[in-house]
Automatic annotation (TrEMBL):
<keyword id="KW-0560">Oxidoreductase</keyword>
<dbReference type="InterPro" id="IPR036812">
    <property type="entry name" value="NAD(P)_OxRdtase_dom_sf"/>
</dbReference>
<feature type="domain" description="NADP-dependent oxidoreductase">
    <location>
        <begin position="15"/>
        <end position="306"/>
    </location>
</feature>
<protein>
    <submittedName>
        <fullName>Aldo/keto reductase</fullName>
    </submittedName>
</protein>
<dbReference type="InterPro" id="IPR050791">
    <property type="entry name" value="Aldo-Keto_reductase"/>
</dbReference>
<dbReference type="Pfam" id="PF00248">
    <property type="entry name" value="Aldo_ket_red"/>
</dbReference>
<dbReference type="InterPro" id="IPR023210">
    <property type="entry name" value="NADP_OxRdtase_dom"/>
</dbReference>
Length: 330
């Protein structure tokens, strides 16, 4: 497995990470046994970076990961954990809490659920507009000093916030959506990261399955949060699926799948970018890891750009109210 380093001071991790959110119901019902098997298969394949959030399934995801990691040496993998999202018993989103007390309380519960004595990268899921980023990062820095956290990350924030956070403590990486149809970060966010020596862990590289080559309309189970996503709605979905078909022609010419060429494109954007793949089944994981063997040449990249041009996507990546919660990459 190829490795990539998270920032100037962060850990070396597998070139592809495994995002575990979908194993806890965010895309409709999930299979617990298959989720555990997928995590273990990822570890066997050399994947070391596992990404989760304490609000994925309201703790379910962390407990699932803990079960999958039983007996696995702690120094053989890295845990990236997001915190701060507030949800009610029905699953509704209530905002974000970045207060220092919330940072430490959330971490205490996370360590207990995961059954570990530290997490490798800890980050607020979103910017809390009522709490200065310096206070949130400062609280995580205290947890670094105490040994409960190894490195500090950020999630979905813009250039100004990145700079302010980095002035408090070294930042390993920014987790933000980046894919062939989500490229807003290229304008200001990515240059800022590179100036400061901060890496990117890119999620949504298949746009939640939209550009995987597998999703069809309609194809959403009850409880699938994509049902509210503008890109999956009506004519937007039709226009986006037309882009996928154009990309499929490029992929087939190379003898690879749509998902593999989309992931390979993200991998090709720089060794400081680590795609986080949301596979929740072993077959999808195996397909995603096949992207590591896809070397894209200049002609390939040009063909991909023609098939799926920048800004060609129809619809925002989140509903309007959630877009309003973003600090960067809109």
């Amino acid at each position: 497995m190829e490795t990539r380093k998270l920032g100037a001071t962060g850990p070396a991790v597998s070139a592809i990470g495994l995002g575990c959110m979908g194993m806890s119901g965010m895309y409709g019902p999930s299979d617990r046994d298959e989720g555990i098997a997928t995590i273990r298969a990822a570890l066997d394949a050399g994947v070391t970076l596992l990404d989760t959030g304490d609000f994925y399934g309201m703790g379910h995801n962390e407990l699932l990961i803990a079960e999958a990691l039983k007996g696995v040496p702690r120094d053989s993998y890295q845990l990236s954990v997001k915190f701060g999202a507030q949800r009610d018993p029905a699953g509704a989103w209530l905002g974000f809490d970045g207060r220092p007390a919330a940072v430490k309380t959330s971490l205490a519960y996370t360590l207990n659920r995961l059954g570990v004595d530290h997490v490798d990268v800890y980050r607020s899921a979103r910017l809390d507009p009522s709490v200065p980023i310096e206070e949130t990062v400062g609280a995580i820095a205290e947890m670094v000093t105490a040994g409960y956290v190894r490195h500090i990350g950020l999630s979905e924030v813009g250039p100004e916030t990145i700079r302010r956070a980095a002035a408090v403590h070294p930042i390993a990486d920014l987790q933000i959506e980046y894919s062939l149809i989500s490229r807003a970060v290229e304008e200001e966010v990515l240059p800022t990261l590179r100036e400061l020596g901060v890496s990117m862990t890119a999620y949504g590289v298949l746009s939640r399955g939209l550009i995987s080559g597998h999703w069809t309309k309609p194809d959403m189970a009850k409880g699938d949060f994509r049902a509210a996503s503008p890109r999956f709605q009506g004519e937007n979905a039709d226009r986006n699926l037309a882009l996928v078909e154009a990309l499929r022609s490029v992929a087939e010419a190379r003898g690879v799948t749509v998902a593999q060429i989309a992931i390979a494109w993200v991998l090709a954007q720089g060794t400081d970018i680590v795609p986080v793949i949301g596979a929740r089944r072993r077959d999808r994981l195996a397909e995603a890891l096949g992207a590591l063997d896809v070397a894209l040449m200049a002609d390939d990249l040009a063909a991909i750009e023609r098939a799926m041009p920048r800004d060609a996507a129809a619809g925002d990546r989140y509903p309007e109210h959630q877009m309003g919660m973003l600090d960067g990459g809109r």
